[in-house]
Amino acid sequence: MSERPILLEASDVAKHFGGVKALRGVSLTIREGEIYGLIGPNGAGKTTFFNCLTGLYVPNGGRIVFAGAELDTSAPHKVAARGIARTFQNIRLFAHMTALENVMVGRHQRTRAGVFGAIFRTPGTRAEEAAIQRRAEELLHYVGIADRAHDLAKHLSYGDQRRLEIARALATEPRLLALDEPAAGMNASETGELRTLIEGIRKDGITVLLIEHDVKLVMGLCDRVAVLDYGEKICEDVPAVVQKDPRVITAYLGAEAQPAGSEVAHG
Ligand SMILES: Nc1ncnc2c1ncn2[C@@H]1O[C@H](COP(=O)(O)OP(=O)(O)OP(=O)(O)O)[C@@H](O)[C@H]1O
């Protein structure tokens, strides 16, 4: 894995909320084709890092280089245009639109007509619209919910809503897919299917950055893992090393450390 080119390099990323130092100069490097895990206890700064990366927060310091050029994180659409897509810890779908429509919205970010053209349906946009629909159908099939295409998003099960969010993110054709707790609220069989899906996404050439509290899933799936604690990166290595690191065990379990590797229930 180490010989693969670097896709994302974050240097000294800092974010403060008043007196709270949510990120204290976090640096990390993600290589092309990796599944890279970002873990840490509640409040460690994981989502804040995602928000800085994807243009939702303006960092107080640091820089991010993506695919060889500085990433302008001043707005989410600029980040998306560079090829970074994300899902959210609290699912953010258009609840009153169908599954298919939700994916088509994601797809419009990548097309000439854009969302405006799609709404007003000029003749020139109709062929493109048909292509968008076909691709959205393919993506629903890809994530395993093709049979729910015409159901409203709000009527999908929790697990299927998470899959739909992934399909919508994939519709933007990202090089890096950032997943914020994709297994939250899933049962064991849904988590197993999610794992297969993420492995498939990587196999298809997309690099994955994963925040996840299900330690078993992270350790089984990720090539490398970084651990945040109180806004600092305390460890970054392959899973077998990370789960034995005393700093990680202490961060998760406090002084009365127990063996790592079991599922840690958080947030
Ligand atoms: N918008 C905000 N305003 C003020 N404080 C914030 C904001 N967002 C995050 N924080 C604080 O920053 C710190 C890091 O929070 P963050 O949500 O990034 O942690 P996390 O590792 O993602 O936690 P969790 O696993 O619970 O989601 C916390 O102390 C949190 O209260």
From TrEMBL:
GO terms for molecular function: ATP binding. SMART domains: AAA. The keyword Cytoplasm does not apply. It comes from the Bacteria. Keywords: ATP-binding, Cell membrane, Membrane, Nucleotide-binding, Transport. InterPro entries: AAA+_ATPase, ABC_AA/LPS_Transport, ABC_transporter-like_ATP-bd, ABC_transporter-like_CS, BCA_ABC_TP_C, P-loop_NTPase. Residues 8-255 form the ABC transporter domain. It holds the Pfam family ABC_tran. This is Amino acid/amide ABC transporter ATP-binding protein 1 (HAAT family). It comes from Azospira oryzae.
